[in-house]
Amino acid sequence: MASENCTAPTTFILSGLTDNPRLQMPLLVVFLAIYITTLMTNLGLTALISIDIQLQTPMYIFLQNLSFTDAAYSTVITPKMLATFLEETKTISYGGCILQYFSFVLLSISECLLLAVMAYDRYVAICKPLLVKGLYFLAFLNSLMHTSGLLKLSFCSSNVLNHFFCDISPLFLISSSSTALNELLVFIFGSLFMVINIISTLISYIFIILTVLRIRSKENDGGKKIFHTCASHLTVITIFFGALTFSYIQPSSSYSVEQEKISAVFYTLLVPMLNPLIYSLRNRKCIVLKEVSSMH
């Protein structure tokens, strides 16, 4: 039980990605370039799909949702992370920390669900707009549940977060009240989302591979191109789900803050940058898969 006279901190101190001063500026340049690329590609795609009537198709509307989520998802984390490379005192307000965590969970779960549904049926699922709205609603409920549990915790012993953003695990480490229920909820719902997403994605790509293998020999070149394209999609999904699974679906006894930071770089910075490059530049080739599949 938390002490009744415990005073909640008004700010948290973020330790950042590294405390090595010689790495601060190089990392700032690298992650700033990644962030700018992420914003330009994702917001560019979002705007282009909005204004081009020819792109008002199920496939591109779905891609627009993913691009918007990626841009927002990256913006929740990256600006504050970049600031930690420049500031001597890396602080974030208590309210800002809670808001950042809520937004992070909302957008990361939305990303998971969007990628899973796109893997299941990338090009027709969006024909039912309620599906996409339902994905965001599920993500909102999940985020609200975890954030509500976080608000019940007390932080009396320390306000120093060994991370570059307000993630749940480093907050658990400095909590002066019991986090057993919170950890259980994170594990149960995290495992549930991951299992559903991974199974649906694997099943979808198994059918894709089987369809490619059924293509006649004279169409082998086209089949190989389709397979390579879809393999690149699967690679990004694997990176995203794998990094999240490594961070949240593991026993607390094996948790490592430094490993968590490295893992977080993948799912907060790299995947939002890679998604529009893979899904937009090479997406058309996978449409051929449906056309070929319908002929066999």
TrEMBL record:
The record, for InterPro entries, names: GPCR_Rhodpsn (IPR000276), GPCR_Rhodpsn_7TM (IPR017452), Olfact_rcpt (IPR000725)
What are the entry keywords?
Answer: Cell membrane, G-protein coupled receptor, Glycoprotein, Membrane, Olfaction, Receptor, Sensory transduction, Transducer, Transmembrane, Transmembrane helix
Q: Which GO terms describe its molecular function?
A: G protein-coupled receptor activity; olfactory receptor activity
Which is one Pfam family of this protein? 7tm_4
What does this protein's UniProt record list under function? Answer: Odorant receptor.
Q: PANTHER family of this UniProt entry?
A: OLFACTORY RECEPTOR (PTHR48018)
Which protein is depicted? Answer: Olfactory receptor
